[in-house]
Structure formats: C-alpha cells, structure tokens
C-alpha cells in the first residue's frame, strides 16, 4: 500500500480551528434541543435546569476545542464536532427515557446521571490521549498492547470480578457500575495489528498457489490469521459473545487486506469465521436463542414465550413513520433495553426515518474523515491504524443497525457515542482522540511537517545501512552516487529539506521500523518515515 505522491489535506494552509469551533456550537445546539423539546412536549414548559445544562455543554465544548487547538492544531475540524453531536443526541434520548422510567418506577433503567459521568471520563481520556505528541511512538508498545488487550479480554473470567449478564460473561463489576473490558481490547489490538502488519506485510503479501484466478498466500503465512481466529473463537465459545468475536476478527482481516491489497485474505477470513458462527448457532444455547429469535421473530410462540424485544422495536419504528412522533411523545420504553441495545429504535420512534438517516449520515461523515486521514498519512503504520479505527466504528454501526432492523441477528453491541454503555463510550472517545492525533499529522503542511520515510518499508539493503549507527551519508560518495544519495535514488537527501528519515527509538527493534528519535548529528539528515 503506497502513499499518494502528494497529500490533498497536507496542502491546506489553514488549521480549520475556527470552522471546528462553529461546528461545535451547532453540535451543542443539536444535543441541547433534544432536552428542551422533550420537556416542552411532556410538560409544556422548558425545564428549569436547561440553563445549567446548556452552560455545562457549552463549557465542555469550549474546553475540548481549546485542548485540540493547543495539542493538535492541524487536526481535521469535522471529527470532534460530529462525535459531540452524536454524544449529545444520545444523552438527550437517555434523559428522555429516564423521564418515563421515573414514572414507571423502573429505577434499574434510570441511567442518565451515570451516562453523564461516563461522558466526562471519556472526554478526560480524550484529552489525555492527545498528550501523546506523535502517534508513531505507539509502535514501541505493540506487543504490550497485545498483552494488555488479551488481559482485558479474560478479565470477566476472574472470580468475584466478572459477572454474567443476559447470558454473556463479558462484564466486570466496578462498585455500583459494570464495565465491558473487551471495548478497550479493540483499541489495543488495533494498535498491535497495525504495527505487526506494517512490519510483516511483505511476507503476508507473497502469493502461493493460484486457485480459481486468485493468488492465495503461502501456508506458513497463515499462522497470524489462525492465531487471531483462535482467539476470536475462544471469545465466542467461552463468553457467548458473538458481537465482540465478530468485531475483533473483522478488524484483523480488514486491516490485513488493506496492508497486503490481496482479496484472498477476505475470502480466507470469511471461510474461517462462517463455520465457527454456524457451530455457535447450532451448539451454544445463548447464540442459538439469538438466531432463533431473529429467524422467527414474528412467530406467535416466540413473541409470547421467548423474546418480544425485536418485534416491539420494529413496531415502534413503524409507528414513528417518516418524521416521528416527536421528542417525548412516543412510547419507546415498551422495548426492553431502549437506552442501550435498542436506542436506534427509540430514536426511530420519536424522530422517525428522517432522524435515523440524519444520525447515520453523521456516522458516515465520521468514518469518511477517518479513512481520508488514512489516505493522507505518509507512513504505513499510521495508514493501517487510522483504517482499523475507522473500520471498527463502521462495523459496530452496521452490526447494531442491522440487528435492530432484523437484517442480521442481534449481537449485544451498542451504537458508538449514542447508546448507554460506559465501556463503549470511553473506548470510542479514545478512538476519537487517536483519529484526531492522526489527522493532525496528516494535515500538517510540508513547511511544518517533514515528509515521512518509514524505514520498515525500505528495501532490506538500504534499511540496514540507514539503521546502522555508524552509517554516514557523506561516506557514500563514490560508492553509491553523490554524497548523501542512497544507491538508485538519483537524488541527494540534502537537495530536499522536507525529507527526513525515522530510525527506531530506544526499545524498538530494527525490524519494527519507524518512530521519532532525538536530534540527529550535525550534517546527517533525520530519517522520519518512508514513501516508497
């Protein structure tokens, strides 16, 4: 996967921070209007706390915007406002549902204050992640990220810590709150996959036999895919969690495809996962029940004796029609888990098809901006990381909306930024921070950011010379060409001040490639990346 010769985003000379500020104002107004219209439709008057709530939302928007302006001044101006709008709509809908739960005295579903706390924690982590000055330092934590991700994955199996909810053992209890650690696993494994694949993609891209017009990879290079497949199946069988298993395996397969540009990996991945999903659907009671409730949702026996949440969700969205019943005028609480798994049906009932489409457009904008960032980055690790994080959001949205609309079985995943779920909300704010950091690097003009040369992508012979601590460009004169010119380039590094080379930092093996280092000796260009 080669970088484009010139980045369209890198040509920008404006940071876009004022555009971001204007969009954040619009996002805050969208979120606040949900609270106000709900109160007006239910009580006929604006709530007394509207002024306080509006002030809090404005303060949060100002703080986050100023933090991005300071830490990532060249970041994409659309990513953050889109997430704030989605989070604000989610808080408004959860608050509206709390009004009904309060009347019904269903206090176990009263979660608005907790979601506000999780939002504050997610924003704090967002600001903390932006403290990382350069995303490339994450490459030195690749194996640590993998180990930490697997530890989070097995935490629910620890006695007195993990709990089983709704048939799936994917939660841990933290005082009065529960947390799903696998949500953080997807972020950590995205970092590991990007680092691993950029260092090994040459081997993984090698073709073996040609079958039915398709070049299959060599057998020995299937080992990484089989390991991730095994971990995904372990999650599926041990935790009865089809959603997390699908998310982790899909993340790896798509990142592998992007790294190697070989469709055969997608076919092999599907060929591995489909039999495992079939086995789960026929042998695991929890997954089998979900499949049956999906296939026979409208059967009377299933509706009366097994599960009525999916038909009720479809009935609610149908009653909403094109424009919806209006904030606070519907009956979304008739559907179980209306504020988490089925928040899409709640929004569909009160905002209609128009509201759902508007929210899906916000997700499309967020995903498109993430993929555009991936295309504009100049190093392989950044490209794969941005692609993996964007695909994680896209796959999660597809799985949730597909489940609620009965396109696919329900999986238990939640809508990013929108639904109640502290673990999902926190993890998605971390993903957002990484995308903001990556977009900051992608949009920096050449006058402020060097053209990146990733040593992991250099030919083996040249990489060996570059990574040699005794290597001196001046000594190459007479052997490989003019002084400061690697063999075969036909141009001196000294002739292009924007080209720098990135050698591995302390603690990173030479095979892993690039990450920022300290100041190079005088007269020696700093190597900070690769553009093959």
Automatic annotation (TrEMBL):
Positions of transmembrane segments: 18-39, 51-68, 74-94, 115-133, 145-163, 221-237, 242-259, 265-289, 351-371, 383-405, 417-436
Membrane topology recorded in Swiss-Prot or TrEMBL: Multi-pass membrane protein
GO terms under cellular component: cell division site; plasma membrane
Cited InterPro entries: FtsW/RodA
Signal in keyword set: no
UniProt key word Transmembrane helix: yes
Swiss-Prot/TrEMBL keywords: Cell shape, Membrane, Transmembrane, Transmembrane helix
Protein name per Swiss-Prot or TrEMBL: FtsW/RodA/SpoVE family cell cycle protein
Originating organism: Actinomyces marmotae
Taxonomy of the source species: Bacteria, Bacillati, Actinomycetota, Actinomycetes, Actinomycetales
């Amino acid at each position: 996967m080669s970088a484009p010769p010139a980045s369209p985003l890198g040509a920008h000379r404006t940071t876009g921070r004022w555009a971001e500020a204007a969009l954040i104002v619009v996002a805050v107004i969208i979120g606040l209007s949900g609270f106000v219209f709900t109160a007006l439709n239910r009580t006929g008057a604006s709530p007394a706390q509207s002024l306080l709530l509006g002030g809090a939302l404005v303060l949060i928007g100002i703080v986050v915007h100023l933090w991005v302006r300071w830490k990532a001044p060249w970041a994409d101006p659309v990513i953050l406002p889109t997430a704030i709008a989605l989070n604000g709509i989610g808080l408004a809908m959860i608050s509206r549902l709390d009004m009904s739960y309060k009347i019904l005295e269903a206090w176990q579903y009263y979660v608005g204050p907790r979601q506000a706390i999780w939002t504050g924690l997610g924003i704090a982590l967002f600001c903390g992640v932006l403290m990382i000055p350069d995303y490339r330092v994450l490459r030195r934590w690749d194996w640590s990220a993998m180990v930490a991700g697997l530890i989070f994955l097995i935490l629910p199996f620890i006695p007195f810590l993990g709990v089983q909810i709704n048939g799936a053992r994917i939660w841990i209890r933290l005082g009065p709150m529960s947390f799903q650690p696998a949500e953080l696993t997807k972020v950590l494994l995205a970092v590991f996959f990007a680092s691993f694949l950029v260092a090994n993609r040459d081997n993984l891209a090698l073709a073996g036999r040609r079958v039915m017009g398709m070049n299959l990879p060599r057998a020995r290079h299937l080992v990484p895919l089989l390991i991730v497949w095994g971990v995904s199946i372990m999650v599926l069988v041990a935790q009865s969690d089809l959603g997390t298993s699908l998310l982790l395996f899909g993340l790896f397969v798509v990142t592998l495809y992007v790294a190697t540009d070989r469709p055969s990996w997608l076919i092999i991945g599907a060929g591995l996962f489909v039999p495992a999903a079939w086995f789960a659907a026929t042998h695991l009671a929890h997954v089998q029940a979900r499949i049956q409730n999906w296939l026979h949702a409208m059967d009377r026996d299933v509706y009366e004796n097994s599960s009525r949440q999916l038909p009720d969700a479809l009935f609610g969205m149908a009653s909403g029609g094109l424009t919806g019943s209006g904030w606070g005028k519907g009956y979304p609480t008739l559907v179980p888990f209306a504020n988490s798994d089925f928040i899409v049906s709640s929004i569909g009932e009160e905002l209609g098809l128009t509201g759902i489409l508007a929210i899906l457009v916000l997700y499309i904008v967020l995903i498109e901006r993430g993929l555009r960032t991936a295309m504009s980055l100049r190093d392989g690790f950044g490209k794969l990381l941005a692609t993996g994080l964007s695909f994680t959001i896209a796959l999660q949205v597809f799985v949730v909306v597909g489940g609620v609309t009965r396109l696919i079985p329900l999986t238990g995943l939640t809508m990013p930024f929108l639904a109640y779920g502290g673990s999902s909300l926190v993890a998605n704010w971390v993903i957002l921070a990484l995308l903001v950091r990556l977009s900051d690097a992608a949009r920096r003009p050449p006058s402020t950011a060097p053209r990146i040369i990733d040593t992991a992508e250099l030919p083996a012979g040249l990489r060996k010379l570059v990574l040699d601590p005794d290597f001196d460009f001046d000594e190459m004169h007479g052997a490989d060409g003019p002084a400061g010119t690697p063999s075969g380039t036909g141009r001196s590094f000294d002739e292009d001040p924007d080209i720098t080379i990135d050698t591995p930092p302390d603690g990173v093996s030479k095979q892993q490639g690039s990450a920022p280092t300290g100041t190079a000796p005088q007269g020696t260009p700093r190597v900070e990346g690769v553009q093959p």
